[in-house]
Amino acid sequence: QFEQSGAGLWTSGAIGRAIFLSGLKVEQGVLVHARLVRAQEALVTEGDLHLVSLLTPTQSSCGFGDNDRSWRQLMAMWRRLGAVERGAASRMGVDADLLAGRSAGWIGSGSAPLEPYHQLWRALLLRRLSCDAPLEAVAKEFHCQLGDVQRLQTDALTSACQVRTFCEEMGWLSLASLVRDYKERLDFGGG
Q: Environment class of residue 63 by beta-carbon count within 10 Å: exposed (0-12), middle (13-18) or buried (19+)?
């Protein structure tokens, strides 16, 4: 997003500045912007699943693959979620019917985007870490290598800083404050 100034120079708009100053890659910045805009329309503040999902890095799968075991495990986790948490997952783009179908083997790989399910998986993993679950226990529970869990935690801390900066640059100060507070929780978790 660029704007032409009165002197004939091109400058970046608010979103471009926020992406640049937060240190996000352009593609990541566009995805973060879309997530945050959707979240501001109806952020699920009862519980923390929706907030932590906004801080999940977009690149790591950390144990979740497009295979039967991963889908069954995600479905088992889904069943343990309360109604509010399921609502938060729906805000992320998770379709309960698709999840049930994939976990039961009724629905094969198709055109539905997998990112919301990866995002839910990462959010659930990071939430366990933020509740002071030991790294080794989280790695075992989510079928990840210990190094992958540590890398996801580090990437999530970096992502939280980037998202906070992005929010501040966009003037979304309340959301920036929520992100800052959760980042501190994640930073001390996973001991």
A: buried
pLDDT in tens, 47-61: 888 888 888 887 766
Structural tokens at position 77: 């986790």
Handedness of CA 104, 76, 35, 23 (dihedral sign): negative
* Phi, psi dihedral angles at 147 (to 5 degrees): -65, -35
Q: Note whether 3 and 147 are within 8 A (CB).
A: no
Within 8 A by CB and 6+ apart from 80, the residues are: none
Nearest to 123 by CA among 174, 89, 158, 170: 89
pLDDT tens across 154-184, in order? 888 888 999 999 999 999 998 899 888 888 8
Extract the tokens encoding 130: 């933020």
Q: Please name every residue paired with 40 in a beta bridge, in sequence order, or none if there are none.
A: none
Q: What is the pLDDT of residue 109?
A: 64
Which tokens belong to 107? 């629905």
Nearest Cα neighbor of 92 from 153, 51, 142 is: 51
Tell me if the pTM is above 0.90.
Answer: no
Q: At 48, which amino acid appears?
A: D
Residues recorded for the chain:
191
Distance CA 37, CA 59 (A): 20
Cα–chain center distance at 167: 15
